[in-house]
Amino acid sequence: MGEVVITGAGTLSPAGIGASALWSALTEFDRSLFTPRRAAPGDRVWDAGLEARVPRFEPARWIEARLALQTDIATQYALCATSLALAQAGIDSRCAQPFETGVFIASAAGGFEFTLAEFGNLWRKGARAVSVYESFAWFYAAHNGQASIRHGVKGDGLTFVGESPAGLDGLAAAVSAIQAGLGRAICGGMDACRDPWSWQALVQSGLVTRRENPDRAYLPFTTDAAGFIPADGGTILVLESAEGAAARGVEPLGSIKGHASGFSPFGSNDDSLSDIIRSALEAARTPACEIDLIMADGQANPIADDAETDALSSLFGRSGHPPVACPKARFGRMLSGGGTTDLLLGLLSARTGVIPGTYSDTDLSSRTDLAIVRRTTRGRRLRTVLVLARDSHGLASALVATTNQPRRRPT
Amino acid sequence: MNATSQVVRQPLDVAITGLGVVAPGRPGREGFWETIISGRSVVRTITLFDPTGFRSQVAGECDLDLASLGLSLADLRRLDRAAVLALTAAREAMADAALPTGIPRRRVGVVLGSAVGCASSLEREFRLATDDGRRPDIADCAFNRDMWEYVAPVGIAAEVANAVGARGVVRLVSDGCTSGLDAIATGARLVRSGQADVVIAGGADAPVTPIVAASFDAIHATTPANAEPSAASRPFDRDRRGFVLAEGSAMVVLESAERAKQRGAPAYCLVQGAATRMNAFHMTGLREDGAELSAAITAALEEADVAASEVSYVNAHGSGTVKNDRHETSAIKRALGRHAYTVPISSIKSTIGHSLGAIGAIEIAASALAIRRGVVPPTANLDHPDQFCDLDYVPQLARSTHLSRVLSTASGFGGFQSAMVLAEA
Fold it and tell me: In this predicted structure, what is the pLDDT of residue A200?
C-alpha cells in the first residue's frame, strides 16, 4: 500500500484559531485554557463549572454571509478549519480536478445548536416557522456537504458520527480511498458544545467534571479524576499520497502508518482495548518498542482510565514505557475532532522535540505506572506516535503516525 | 485522473448471508417482500403525531409489535425508536444468517447508517423540558440522563453491537439519504480488507416526527397530496409532488464469499462494487445532468468488473421529486448508455415511502431478494410517466426475470451520490 501523508492542518480550539495558537498555548505556558462557564440568561442549572470554547470566532471573517445563515456554528468551524488546512497544504480553495478530492469529516452532534432554535420555532410558532435550512443544517453530514460545495469537491464522501474515534476512523477511510486511487482527502472532526442542551446532556451523562478550579479540574490518570471538560473545536487534515505531495513539492507534517478500531465497552474486563492497539501496531508494521510517544485518550473517568492504563501497560510494559501525553487535560476534550487534534499535537511533538505537559499542577500523583508527561518537556528525540481515542460507549480507535522530516514551526 | 479511474478494479466479493427488514407494511423480511411486489402503497395519514397544520400529512409508518421484541420496559423507554427498528432488523438478519458459534467477537463488526439519528427522542425531550415550547427556557427541567445518547447517536450502533455480541469495528455512517447504502459499502470493505470476518450492516431511521416533517415541509420536498395517501408517492410520474416521509430499518449480514461457501451458507447475492461521489452543487438541489451520480455508478461498475450492458435491473432512488427523477434518469443514461433504455428500473418508495438514512439499506435488501427470487418489484403509482423520464420503470406490476447483476442507486442531501452493484452468488 502506498504511503499517505498529512500536508495540511486546520485547528480550532479553546486557544483560538489555527494549530499554532494551540501549540503555543500548550508549550509556552503551563496553565489550562478553561474558563468559568458563561450561563445564558435563565440558565440557572448549568451556571457552574468550567467550559472550553473557541474564543473570538467571527464567522464573517471566514465564510460568506449566506453560508453563515444556513449553517450551525460547528459547520462554520469546520469550514474555517478546512480553509486553513487547504491553505497550509498549498491547495487552491476551488479544486481544479474535483473528482480527485474526497471529504471524510466526522461529527458527533451535527448542527444541534441550529436545531434547538428550530425546535423552539416549531413548538412556539408552528410548522411554518421552521427555517428552510433546517433540513440540512442539522445533518451530521453538513460539514462534508458544505465543504464539498465550497471547495468544489466531487470525489468520495463519507461521514462517521461519534466522538474522538470517529475522526480517526474517517481519517483511516480516507487513507484507504487514497490508496485506492483518490488524489487527496479532507478529513478530521469538528464539533461545538456551546448550546445548553449539549452541555447539560454531557453533564447528566456523568462524564463531565463540575470542578471550578481550572488547574485541578480535568485530571486524567490521577486519583482525583472526576470527569473531563468538553471542548469546542477539532482539527481538519489534508491527506494525499506521499508521491503526490512530493510531486507538488510540499513537505508533509507526517505519515499515517496504521490504524485499527473496535468496541471495548467500559467494564468489559477483557483485553479488547489492548487488542485494538496491537492491531494498529501490526497494521503499521511497528513494534511497540518503536513508539516514541503515546497520545492518551484520558477521559478522567476512573474505570476508563484504568482500562486504558492496563491496555497500554500490557503492551508497553515489557519494552519500557514511552512518554504518555494527554495535553487535552489543559484545553478540554473535543468530540469528533479530538483524535485528529491529538494526532496533530503528537506529530508536532515529534517534529519539535517538545511534548506539551498534561497538568498545570505538578503536585498530582499518578495512580498508574504510565510515564505521564506532567510538565512540558523539550529536547526529546521522537519520531513515531501512537494516538488512542475512545468514546463514552467504548468505541475505540488507535492510530500510528510518524515523521522523519526536518523540524518546522506549526502555522 | 478522471471521475471513474479511482477504484480498485477487483470485485469486493462479499456475500450477504442474512437479511432483516422492518418497513411499513407487513412485518419481517417475507412481509416486506410481499409488500413491495404488490404494487400497492402502504403509505397512510400520519399517526405517530398529529399532522394538523403540516403541509405533508402522510407517511410510511411501521407497525411494531413492541411486546414481541424481547426488550425490557426500561430499554423501550431508553432507546430511541430508530434503535428499536435497528435491533429488530439486526435480530432477524442474524437469525437468517445462522452464523456458526465460535467466531471471535473481535472479528464481528457493526456499521449502521442513519440520517437523523435519535430525532424523535430529542424532540420528545425538548417538549418535556419546555412544556411543548411554552417555557422560555429550560432552566429547571429534569434532563433525561440518556440525552447525550440522543444528541450523538452513535449509541444506536453500539446497541446493535451489544445485542449481537460484536466487539470489532462499530461505526455510524450519516451521509443523509445514502447512509444505508454507504454503511453496507463500508461494512463490505471491512470484510474485504480483512478487518472483520462478519459485519452486520444496514440503516435505520425514525424520522416521522414534527421537526423532521416541518423541515421538509419548509422546502416543499415532501408531497402535499394528503387526500389519498396510497397515491401520494409517485416516482417518475408526471403528477408527482414530492416524496413521502417514512421510517424503517434493514440490516444485512456480510461475510466473505469464500467464508460463506465454506460453511455452506446460501448467499442472497454478492456485493461486488460500490462508490460515492459528492456533487459539490447544493445541499438539497441536484443538477439535471446527473453527472456525479453517473460517476458513482460507473465507479461501482468498474470495481465490480461489470459492464453496463450486464446490469439486469436498476433499483432506483426514485424519490418522487421532479429534481431527483430527472437527475437520476440522466445519470442512468450517462452511465449505462443505450442499455439504459432496455434495463428494468423501479422504485419501491411509492410503496413504502422514503425512510431517509434507512432506505438505502432497505433497497439493498429489496435488490438481494429480487435476485434470489427473480422478480423485479414494480414502481407503484406510476400511471403517467414524466416526459423527461423515458426509461422502463416497471409500472404497477412486478416482473419475473432472471437477475444476475443489480445496480442500486441513492442520492442524499449534502450532495452524496452513491451506487452499489450486487451479483447473484
Answer: 81
| Shared domain check, A305 and A217 | no
Best CA proximity match to B179, nearest among B334, B14, B317: B317
- The pLDDT score that the predictor gives to residue A31 is 86
CATH of the domain at A384: 3.40.47.10
Q: Using an 8 Å Cβ cutoff, are A141 and A365 in contact?
A: no
Interface of B with A in 258-317 (CB under 8 A): 275-284, 292, 295
Please list, in sequence order, all residues whose beta carbon lies within 8 angstroms of the beta carbon of residue A293, skipping any fewer than 6 positions away.
A322, A323, A324, A325, A346, A349, A350, A355, A380, A382, A384, A385, A386
The runs of H, that is alpha helices, within A126-219 are 134-137, 142-151, 164-179, 196-204
Size of interface A-B (CB pairs under 8 A): 272
Instruction: Let me know if residue B141 belongs to a domain.
Output: no
How close does chain B come to A380, measured CA to CA in Å?
34
Among residues A189, A213, A248, the one where a domain terminates is A248
* Per-residue pLDDT, A1: 61
Closest by Cα among A178, A315, A397 to B109: A397
Pairing of strands A4-13, A254-263: antiparallel
User: Is B317 one of the annotated active-site residues of the chain?
Assistant: yes
| Residue of A1, A71, A114, A156 best to disrupt the B interface, most CBs of B under 10 A | A156
Q: Which helix (H) or strand (E) holds A305?
A: helix A302-316
| DSSP single-letter state for residue A262 | E
ipTM of the complex: 0.96
Question: Which tens digit of pLDDT belongs to each residue from A225-257?
Answer: 999 999 999 999 999 999 999 999 999 999 999
Contact A134 B215 (CB under 8 A): yes
Whether residue A297 sits in one domain with residue A155? no
Give residue A38's domain range. 4-248
List the 143-182 stretch of B: residues with Cβ below 8 A of A.
Answer: 143-155, 158, 161-162, 166-176, 182
Full 3-state SS string of B111-136 = EEECCCCCHHHHHHHHHHHHCCCCCC
Tally of CA atoms within 13 A in the half-sphere of B234 that contains its CB: 21
Distance CA A119, CA A127 (A): 10
Q: Active-site residue B177, yes or no?
A: yes
Match 456554528 to its residue by C-alpha cell: A73
